Amino acid sequence: MINQRIINALESCVGKIPPKHEIELIKDESWGDFASNLPFILAQEKKVSAKLLAEELAKKLVSYPDFAQVLVGGNGFLNFTISDKLLQEGLRIASDEDFGKSEVGRGEKILLEYVSANPTGPLNVVQARAAALGNALGNILRFAGFSVTTEYYVNDSGTQVELLYQSLLTRIKELKGEKAELPEGGYPGKYLLDIAKEILTGRFPETEWRQYLLTTILKNQQSSLAKFGIHFDNFVNESKFIDRIDEVLKKLAKVGKSYEKEGALWFRATDFGDTEDRVLLTKEGRPTYFITDLAYHIDKLARGFDRLINIWGPDHHGYIARLKGGIAALGYPSEKLEIIIAQQVSLLKEKEKIAMSKRAGEFITLDEVMDEISSDALKFFLLLRKASQHLEFDIALAKKSTQENPVYYVQYAHARICNILKFALEKGTASSKGVNLSLLHEPEERRLAKLTIYFPDVIERAALLREPHRLVYFLLDIATAFHYFYERQRVVTDNKELTQARLYLCQCVQKVLANGLSLIGVSTPEKM
Hints:
The protein is of the alpha/beta class. The protein is built from 18 helices and 15 strands. The strands form four sheets. It has a five-stranded parallel sheet with strand order 7-6-5-11-12, sandwiched between helices. It has a four-stranded antiparallel sheet with strand order 1-2-4-3. Helix 11 links the parallel strand 11 (307-312) and strand 12. The longest helix has 24 residues, at 496-519.
């Protein structure tokens, strides 16, 4: 809402706004409410001073009824102070049930794939970060008008699964009292002992051991995700696409993007910006993970999705170019595929970082973390940083029921408002859209109102930039503004009109907090 009003005003002065244009909330309110970088962009194009351009625009824009003031900040930012009229107009719709919802996505069909862990053991907190990120992003995209399908790709074939099975056979031999050693790169985790013991009950013929192993681990992963509050529309097995490899290979050969060398079949990945060409089939004729994954992504596109978004782990960055290249080689626009890399997560335990390696046998699982802290706290903490940034958090802080804990701090703002509204109702005081909002002129009220009506813009940017952390930062900002307001202004007063106006403002803030928390998968308690 706010962004569009500013853009409309700017476009009335300069015409179509360039894509690089950004509007940001100003932290220091002495400079205004929102800042535009438009003068810098236009100055580069016209080879003139950004400050002079900003001064010319400010003179034109100050007469617009949406703005109380337009100033030039820094070396050429346009700083807008929005008018009371615009604040009140925004608040009139902010109590609506779906406030913040938009149609910016215009129904674009998105397939969002995330987690997609190998079925080789319990999920860890790095995969939990991908789960929290994908869940929040999917919710935000839907709220912004996109049509989203979520998918989990089960890597049920290939080298790692074979290593897992050989590791299981080692455990079975050990339980039988036979001497056995794990294969190089095998999995030493205790969970394989539990599965080996079950197999040795004799319930399964040996021909079913491998499938029982994969099914058991996948069910355990799904159980952990359900406990974490994460659900997928589809689970798709890698083995489903083995039969489609020949078709993809024929198409690559037809367009001249594959060749043989040293007995192996290669993809001309360097034609698409990769650092080297990539193997499709080994010299033994075995398909690589890449060709199977390419077949899977062609299947995604064939299903009619407008855009594919994948959330991958921190060790997959070098894989992006080859997959985009493969898609382009087969005739699809590579920009249809977006990759988000979720970086590493470090947990602290007694001031020491906890190792998280399945193969070392010493890693902390998602279930173990959820035994320590709530799923609400875990999701919130995992979304506190941009996906591309390394994340570190203290479990002890996440367990605290104090305002030091950021998720508690935001939830407490929601609970406080519920308590205020309940108290007012008991006193026989209610509120409605017809209240006199011009009575809300205290600095604390104005700040809270401004943040409230900015919520739809936060949702749109989080959706379009694929950055759920923006919503988390915003929730912390509006919770801070509410607590500040609560500590300095009494809501239920002897002045009936003022009480009704403040109650209405509180209702709007409650709606924003409830919608925002639910989008990131966090509960909204009414009592704390």
